[in-house]
Fold:
Amino acid sequence: MHDMDFGDTVTKSILQVRRECAFFGALMLFARIIPTKSIETAATDGKTIFINEDYLNSLSSSEQNALLLHEVLHMALLHCIRIGGRDRHIWNIAADIVVNGMIRMNTSFQLPNGAIIDDKFKDESAEEIYEALLKNKEKIKLSMPDIIEFDEENDDLSTEKMSTEEIEGYWKDAIQVVENTVNNDSNGSGQGNLPAGLSSEIKNILEPEVDWRHALWKYVGKTNSDFDDLDRRFIYKGLYLEGLLTDGLEIFVCIDTSGSVSDQLLSQFAGELKGILSSYPHVKCKLYYADTDLDGPYEIDHIDKLPPAKGRGGTSFVPFFNALSKSDGTFSEVNRAAVYFTDGFGDFPKKEPDNPTMWLVPSDGLKSKDFPFGDVIRISTENWH
Structure:
């Protein structure tokens, strides 16, 4: 009977949300919501929403609607995955600001006491808000942390076994289905039917990815003999890769080691760099690590072990490009290029450098249009293990 009461409450909330915002109401149908005693209020691990039933029953109907929608948006916007290696407390605050802003813009529901609201971050992504909070070192108390890691030892929080890739695919498909359904029901009027603040988030999540291995291998692996087949995105301001046949290509690689980049991502960056150098020993490489400070250069080749990464602070791209401008010779020479592995959230140089630059950015990184220079390649993580 108790579980039935909980189910009735959830069903009632979904119907009420749908009356105010068809998109949100339909999206809620894709979420798995279960009661638990192990969570004081509510939380999600990206696969399941856990609700303390006593807490839920203590709220008004309007607050119940806002609470459930809040957790569903965390799931649908992949906040439990996009956290990467970021500080969980600050990331949770940033993600809360995003979803609470959406709820306030699109519904009349009252958020529960303690909800974090900050209108100065309107239309900004969780990543952008996180960087601002980190940079300003703002102290905001999070009374209801609700983005959690799944604990396999806690039987009360048992959940479905789903990989990161499966979760991403599930919610990307759900968003597309809901978007198509809502648009069709509204006589095809399109984007105007999306909730306020959601269009840019959806575009960011659904943005087509490129297998960055393939992109980078084409970048350093093409020669003059197969120049005609080269994707034009990889021809950088006269960087014709016939240099590979003669003196070789010199690449200046920088790996972002700030707190927003996970250990897994760092490992993948390093592994793929070694793969490139092993297959193309004529490629000369100078490696840097950077957060707000710069470590390097390390001159490495295909037989060298990569030096340990240093960093874990904020993010600034300025030191790397400053170093390149002071490097021996003219960095804009034909056979030189910069490759920057990063999520894109940081301070850019005020002046565009002369050198050709490739940014390798995860799917949840900075929007491509916000990079002031260079070419942005979206990282596909489907084959990462």
